[in-house]
Amino acid sequence: MLDDVLEGLSGQPKTLPSRLLYDARGSDLFEDITVLPEYYPTRTERAILEEAAPALAEAIGPGAVLVEYGAGASVKTRILLDAMIEPAGYLPIDVSEDMLAKTKPALERDYPGLPVHPVVGNFLVPPPLPDVDPRARRVGFFPGSTIGNLADGEIATFLDGAAEELGEDGLLILGVDLKKSPDILVPAYDDAQGVTAAFNLNLLERLNRELGADFDLAKFRHEARWNEAESRMEMHLVSLAGQTVTIDGRRFDFAEGESIHTENSRKFDLDALDRLLAASPWRRAQSFLDARGLFSVLLLERG
Ligand code: AVJ
Questions:
Q1: CB 269 within 8 A of CB 295
Q2: Would the pTM of this model clear 0.85, i.e. be above it?
């Protein structure tokens, strides 16, 4: 973590890895973000999943194993599990062993007879999976438009790895946020209550706490920027003054107005996504959108 932080802050422009946003406090703040009036992705994806669940269950067929990449609390998973015909198992993959340990008993209680085998690991490089039922079809689930946080190379690595472990008759259900007006996007990443600002600034608090950095949180402000050329929302922490921050004996100078780029959240149109998929083992088989075209849930099959 220290090496990644020092490297990011030594760069021009300064960056910090977005995964560092999700410590315990950051994960709680993100949960709060998902219910904000301005943050449309979570509730829109849930509504699409509920509507699409019967069609997805039919395409999947009986006796399949569900594999979730970055499972978190497995909330959206339940919509799929409720609709699936006799699911043969559920394999949640997550970096948080705590989270997995909590969700396993809850799922086993609510889905009697469903084998739940958590896998601790980083889904970016899909880890080996337990062989629940070697002949069962495997269905991947990657919701939340987390794919939008990844660089092109990381997306390619993920899609290849998922194809490898889900197999020739595997399916992948992908949640993808769609390109739309900055009038909707910017407030979604800069809400009136300041929850997203707290989420972003928590990253500096974490560096102070865990690495002994001396960031003055009053001297940075949260900024959400729409980058049209890259079709992505960006989160930045902008320095309000000329200042020097020290981490592990290393000094980092900030000019007034200089930013630390902390997150990308790419917004896709389906053509751009198809171009990415064309270079992967996957093709779009079915697409489900909300009426306003804000978000999509895509069923991918091997091409
Ligand atoms: C959970 C990473 C998909 O990019 O929309 C929400 C994170 N950042 N508000 C997103 C996030 C600021 C979220 N992802």
A1: no
A2: yes
